[in-house]
Amino acid sequence: MGEIVIPAKFNAHKIYKKMMFLNPYRDVGGSTPLLLDLYPGAQFAYSLQYLKTGVVNVLRVVRTNDSTERDFTPIEITNGTLVSWVGAGNNGFVKTEYDQNGNGRHLNFSGLTNKIVNNGALLLDNGMPYIEYTGDSISADYSITGGSGLNADNASVFCTYNSNSNDNGSILTGSSTVAYLGIMHNGNKFSPHLNSGNPLYFADGLNITAPTRAKLYTNYVKNKDVLSTILNINFTDLRWSNTAIPFAYAQTLFSAPCKSKEFIVYNSDQTANKEGIEANIKTRYGIV
Length: 288
Description:
Blueprint (H helix, E strand, L loop, with lengths): L11 H11 L12 H4 L3 E6 L11 E5 L5 E4 L1 H5 L2 H6 L5 E6 L9 E3 L4 E5 L2 E2 L1 E2 L2 E2 L1 E3 L8 E3 L10 E9 L5 E6 L4 E7 L14 E4 L2 E3 L4 H6 L7 E8 L4 H6 L14 E9 L7 H12 L3
Antiparallel strand pairs: 1-18, 2-3, 2-4, 4-5, 4-6, 5-11, 6-7, 6-10, 8-9, 10-18, 12-17, 12-18, 13-14, 15-16, 15-17
């Protein structure tokens, strides 16, 4: 065999990173240590990837042609099983996102509002599957099985998404009766949180100081995966326990569509684990 010549400018690290990025489903089988194995104790956790050893199904989907429902694993979402089952020309809407932490706090949808298969094609964003939250549902459309159970006075949220909204988005906000944990839009550009103390907001690890709804939105780059971390949250208000809703939904006439990928809530302070949790999530999603 002849001598193998390596170009002088060859950079194995860059090549490896590029290969990792080009393999969009690199972690559905759990090649990266599973997040909830490393950092257990979440109140509830939703993802299209595995987060904990022993998890089987992460999603229940309903197809539009005959309203049949079926559960899917992360591998079945990405290996063609989901798309084949939904069928050419049909849409697949999320019926349930299962709580991977094992607490049984599943996220349920009563209406066909959040899509994962569109016209027979899996929704992909930056090479990764996502759920399209349209932002046009109402509070009666969704619920967490048994209520959120949030009651900590110093809790933590980690969510991975990609905003495709032109409106001002916000996190940790709500109305006088409903508390939202994810992104939403509201005409009021001020208080970004409701009865939550003074949480600390981070976007891709950078602290957002003096946050307003408009300022939070400008820190979330459109069409780019973002890891949002919120620490020091006060969840003792009754609304958080009864009606805390993840991700993007409408309030009155306002909406905030987004591409949802992962949402994890701890009923405890995860400041000490922040860097480790963020590193795990960024590795799986290729977030720089």
